[in-house]
Amino acid sequence: MIEVTVEDRAGGRTRFAARPGERLLHAGLAAGLGLPYECATGTCGSCRATVTEGDVGSLWADAPGRRVCRRPGEILMCQSAAAGGALSLKLPTAFRDRREPECRSLSGRLSSFRRFTAEIGTFSVELDEPVEHLPGQFALISAPGVEGPRAYSMTGNPSTEPRLDFLARLSGPGKLTPRLFSNALEGREVEVFGPLGRAALRPEDDRPFVAIAGGSGVAGMLSIVEAALARGHFDRHPSRLVFGLRSMEGSYLLDRLSEFVRLSGGLFRTTVAFSDEAPDPEFEAIFPDLEFTTGYVHDVVRSGLSSISADRPICFVAGPPPMVDATMRMLVVEGKVSPAEIRFDRFG
Amino acid sequence: MTASDDFAWEPLDDVDDLEVGDRRELSLASGKLVLVMRTETGLHASCADCPHQDTPLAEGMLDGSVLTCPLHFWQWDVTTGEPLGVAELPLEIFELKQEDGRWWIGMRR
């Protein structure tokens, strides 16, 4: 094992051990450290650190997130591994409080891939043992023969079953999702690292929430709503989901959202916003429990901003970066919502 | 009180047209990048990049005296540099003065 010393901006210093070749972010998180990260897959740049002593190997030299590494010695901890000998890192931020379940690496088998549209599907990983997570968190999945891990959000209410359910979107340069969609990986062994992410519903949350999801960003919201239903959250705090999709033809999971609305007795409301077309009355009639509208999700949320300002709900925001950024700008600038009240995940 | 001699002053051109709510990234003669903003209380100048991830703050949002970084939504009061909300670090603020109808920005020596 390689000893890694980490110093944060405030001068706090701690140590963890990493195996040769192990991703530094994974090793640190698994050791219980509050290291900074967001995507954990090399895109966002949030896990930047400076190597002050020792050497690291880069696992993805062209990672998009490396654009933030502009000075000598700067690395992304999610895409770097200890190369041997003692290693010292310096963080540009403070250690975060760890309020989420411990991260760890587990093995499991892929199963139950189900395709909803040309680019959206769900699948499960049957684990060797259960893993604790919060509703709204995600995990990294690595498959043999597929370079690098890929992030997927858990869609179910956390349970003691040794299984995790995920939503997958076929897009971008990732190599794992296309193989899921071609059913080439059914039954294959995979490694799961997690749980990750802070855009989660916590046990102590006792306020209404507004969940704002674009496309596959709805994955974590499914988990949050299911968990909220199970704990009777909506009886005390009526809450809402705004789900942005492009078109009726490309829609998915509306039957499951309808069921959530029914189970809540209408105390949980869902508005589906189509960006590219107006909802057809015949389509709306298929899902009488849902509300439909036209426009981008941030515009739909803007129309209800006065109630957000008055009720001070928890705001969950997840989806592609342009959608998350537009929604955050609207909430922060127009709604005067403190960023501390918003839990967001950008899906690169 | 800070003496004016504590600063190296550089001229700051191209700011007179800034209206309340406007901000502009400027490159000083020394090569340093700064962000100049106008609020209801006047003209203010800060470092151009977020102290968190070096994101250009010209792409952020200025609302009253609150500047918000567009990447992780760190916020500051631009009149003092005080961190707000989720920000973990203060924002470096530069002295400004107007002499003979021209704006100057002071870099601490």
From TrEMBL, chain A:
Give the matching Gene3D superfamilies.
Answer: 3.10.20.30, Nucleotide-binding domain of ferredoxin-NADP reductase (FNR) module, Translation factors
Q: What GO molecular function terms would the record report? A: 2 iron, 2 sulfur cluster binding; oxidoreductase activity
SUPFAM superfamilies linked to this entry: 2Fe-2S ferredoxin-like, Ferredoxin reductase-like, C-terminal NADP-linked domain, Riboflavin synthase domain-like
- Give start and end of each 2Fe-2S ferredoxin-type domain: 1-95
Supply the InterPro entries for this chain.
Answer: 2Fe-2S_ferredoxin-like_sf (IPR036010), 2Fe-2S_ferredoxin-type (IPR001041), 2Fe2S_fd_BS (IPR006058), Beta-grasp_dom_sf (IPR012675), FAD-bd_FR_type (IPR017927), FNR_nucleotide-bd (IPR039261), MRET (IPR050415), OxRdtase_FAD/NAD-bd (IPR001433)
- State one Pfam family annotation: Fer2
Which PROSITE patterns does this one have?
2FE2S_FER_1, 2FE2S_FER_2, FAD_FR
Limits of the FAD-binding FR-type domain: 103-202
Its domain of life reads Bacteria
Q: What PANTHER family would the database entry show?
A: NADH OXIDOREDUCTASE HCR, PROTEIN RFBI
Name this protein carries in UniProt: 2Fe-2S iron-sulfur cluster binding domain-containing protein
Species: Hansschlegelia zhihuaiae
UniProtKB/TrEMBL annotation, chain B:
Drop me one GO molecular function for this one.
2 iron, 2 sulfur cluster binding
Q: What Pfam families does the record tag this protein with?
A: Rieske (PF00355)
Q: Gene3D superfamilies recorded for this chain? A: Rieske [2Fe-2S] iron-sulphur domain (2.102.10.10)
Q: Which InterPro entries match?
A: Rieske_2Fe-2S (IPR017941), Rieske_2Fe-2S_sf (IPR036922)
Please provide the record's keywords in A-Z order: 2Fe-2S, Iron, Iron-sulfur, Metal-binding
Q: Which PROSITE patterns match?
A: RIESKE
- Coiled-coil stretches noted in the UniProt entry, renumbered to this chain: none
List each copy of the Rieske domain by range.
Answer: 9-105
- What is this protein's name? 2Fe-2S ferredoxin
